[in-house]
Design goal:
Structural class of chain A: alpha/beta
Largest sheet of chain B: 7 strands, mixed
CATH superfamily of the largest domain in chain B: Thiamin diphosphate (ThDP)-binding fold, Pyr/PP domains
Strand content of chain A: 15-25%
Order of helices and strands of chain A: HEEHEHHEEEHEHEHHE
Order of helices and strands of chain B: EHEHEHEHEHEHEHEEHEEHEEHEHEH
Helix content of chain A: 25-40%
Low-confidence stretches of chain B: none
CATH topology of chain A: Rossmann fold
CATH superfamily of chain A: Thiamin diphosphate (ThDP)-binding fold, Pyr/PP domains
Distance between the termini of chain B: 49 Å
Helix content of chain B: 40-55%
Mean pLDDT of chain B: 97
Oligomer: heterodimer
Number of helices of chain B: 12
CATH topology of the largest domain in chain B: Rossmann fold
Number of strands of chain A: 9
Largest interface: A-B, 37 and 40 residues
CATH architecture of chain A: 3-Layer(aba) Sandwich
CATH class of the largest domain in chain B: Alpha Beta
Strand content of chain B: 15-25%
Chain lengths: ~250, ~350
């Protein structure tokens, strides 16, 4: 007798991810799909993927999906949610999408307390376009547009969007997690679960920042990339609850 | 029949939109269209199923409209020239995603920040697509308060029917002038035909995607040709123009919106002096009313295009006539408002020249 102990989540399609080996997106996708299944909200959920590596999320999530222009996820989600307040709307955005071109949309959606949940993949780099500097690239980190490393005087420091959103009244739950180890992945899932629950309870804007390895553009092996998150990235972007006015839910 | 009310053009758009079942509006302050945004704030607050958002930017506003439209809601945004430039990204996406939406441009003097005076400098931007990519939008140009109401109603109908963004193109003069208007009865948006493409959660049906990333060039090409097929239908079905005193005219003035009102006054005056002049007023700027223009072109060979710009619609007139007539142009860009007397002078001088009187 064999017992099946691991399978594809119900709301991930039977498709092979296009993501590079060692990329964190596939783990994050899986966690979002698992949580949607566990909360039994798939039939009322609309997802809004970004322009970036995760633009093809509609090939993987078996959910209604609304593709947004680069950076406009929070605005599109706002429109979707305001006219169907009984639905669950989430955006899934990369660091360039959410913290550079879409900063205004994100901050103002949070400030209005839009009842949406955002999953923000921070891998410190523009992945799909080939490894340019992201707003979250850390000082000294190499990218194709910061040869020799990012400097404070030339590019400015990494933008800490989650901390900024922590100052915004309408944002009620902001947590930073990582998907570089089994333990961190378990905690990431808990945070994603909480973000959805905050929305289901109509409490306000929720966001989970997910530190995610990008071995291809970091020019590391997957193992090195996971280690780099622990040893370097989390020094700038510490894993923690940044804001929680909700408590247990 | 509903009662006649006196209202400014910007308020008329708002009232007509609500009656047409518009239940989502997002906008950003810019003169000379703020009355519409303010009207929608109050109107939506009074509706249990209405939503209004003062957006953080024009770009956010049009993207909120995209979201509301994806959810199947009749949605609108409005702005004035510089703000409409910012919305072009979203309008291109609306076209690509085949989503209905109504966009109002209350044009002002430009380019750049320009001024807040009436202008028609955005004709090219409105009728050529405006944003990136190979698309068109329906463009409606009202010429009176009543027509603002009628065309706002039509704008929502066309948007849903053809699944396309529709632009109402007017200016601050049309927007702020008060005229008597009779509105149609309000419709209940829940009674509108269902939108089998909308995103409301995949309950009891396969999941859906609304997207415009089409990496396969052949698929992208197919979308473009599908859009073109829709544009051809629109050209057949919705071209609209007013003709005024053209049946015996030897020359016609062609103008739209505010310029057409001025031109009509000028034509009336010229008629009193015995000049056989008429007016052709495009109501749909895209599709350009080529068919009704060619109809009067059977007997009228001389045209004076008058625009509050350096000459944009005049190109469509020339393209439509394909050389079958002489096309002259008079324009004032940047915001000054010509008087009927001024245009009468232009008509008289030209009429004498072309008819050798």
């Amino acid at each position: 007798m064999s017992k099946k102990i691991f399978s594809r989540p119900k709301y991930l399609k039977d498709a092979a991810f296009h993501y590079c080996p060692g990329c964190g997106h596939s783990i994050a996708h899986r966690l979002v799909a698992e949580v949607i299944e566990e909360l039994d909200i798939a039939r009322i959920t609309i997802g809004v993927p970004p322009a970036g590596c995760a633009v093809l999320a509609y090939d993987y999530f078996d959910l209604d999906i609304a593709e947004a222009a680069h950076g406009r996820g929070a605005a599109v989600a706002t429109g979707l949610k305001r006219v169907q307040p009984d639905k669950i709307v989430f955006t899934y955005q990369g660091d360039g999408d959410i913290a550079a071109i879409g900063t205004a949309e994100t901050i103002h959606a949070a400030n209005r307390g839009e009842k949406i949940s955002t999953f923000f993949i921070n891998n410190g780099v523009y992945g799909m376009t080939g490894g340019q500097m992201a707003p979250t690239t850390i000082l000294g980190q190499n990218s194709t547009t910061t040869p020799g490393g990012r400097t404070m005087t030339r590019e400015g420091g990494p933008l800490n969007l989650s901390q900024m959103l922590g100052l915004v009244d309408g944002a009620v739950y902001i947590e930073r997690v990582a998907v570089n180890s089994p333990k961190n992945i378990r905690n990431a899932k808990k945070a994603i679960m909480k973000a959805f629950k905050v929305q289901m309870a109509n409490l306000g804007y929720s966001m989970v920042e997910i530190l995610s390895p990008c071995p291809t553009n970091w020019k590391m092996t997957p193992v090195e990339a996971c280690k780099w998150i622990d040893e370097t990235m989390t020094k700038v972007f510490p894993i923690k609850v940044i804001k929680d006015t909700v408590g247990n839910i | 029949m509903n009662e006649k009310v006196l209202m400014s053009g910007n308020h008329v758009i708002g009232e007509a939109a609500v009656r047409a079942g518009c239940r989502f509006y997002a906008g950003y302050p810019i003169t000379p269209q703020n009355e519409l945004t303010e009207f929608m704030a109050s109107a939506m607050a009074g509706l249990s199923d209405g939503a209004f958002i003062q957006a953080e930017s024009e770009i956010a506003a049009i993207n909120m409209v995209i979201g509301a439209s994806m959810a199947g809601c009749r949605a609108m945004t409005s702005s004035s020239s510089p703000g409409v430039s910012l919305k072009q990204e979203g309008i291109s996406f609306l076209a690509a995603l085949e989503l209905p939406a109504v966009i109002v441009n209350c044009m002002r003097g430009g380019p750049g920040l320009g001024n807040i005076a009436p202008s028609q400098g955005d004709y090219f931007q409105a009728t050529r697509g405006g944003g990136h990519g190979d698309y068109r939008t329906i463009v409606l140009a009202p010429g009176s308060g009543q027509e603002i109401a009628d065309l706002t109603t039509k704008a929502f109908e066309y948007a849903d029917k053809y699944r396309t963004p529709v632009m109402i193109l007017q200016d601050g003069m049309m927007g702020q002038m008060m005229e008597p208007v009779i509105f149609p009865d309000p419709i209940d948006p829940s009674m509108l035909p269902p939108k089998p493409w909308k995103l409301d959660g995949a309950d009891g049906r396969p999941s859906r995607v609304i997207k415009s990333l089409l990496l396969d060039p052949l698929v992208e090409e197919a979308l473009n040709w599908r859009l073109v097929a829709g544009y051809e239908e629109m050209k057949k079905e919705i071209q609209a123009a007013e003709t005024y005193m053209t049946s015996d005219a030897e020359m016609a003035v062609i103008a739209y919106g505010t310029a057409a009102r001025i031109a009509k006054g000028a034509v009336k005056r010229a008629r009193q002096t015995g000049l056989k002049v008429g007016l052709f007023r495009p109501i749909t700027l895209w599709p350009f009313p080529k068919d009704p223009l060619l109809e009067i072109n059977k007997h009228i060979k001389n045209f004076l295009v008058f625009e509050m710009s350096t000459g944009q619609m005049v190109e469509d007139v020339r393209l439509s006539l394909e050389g079958q007539g002489k096309v002259h142009f008079y324009g004032r860009p940047g915001g000054p408002i010509s008087t009927p007397h001024e245009i009468e002078g232009v008509i008289t001088e030209l009429f004498k020249k072309v008819t050798n009187v």
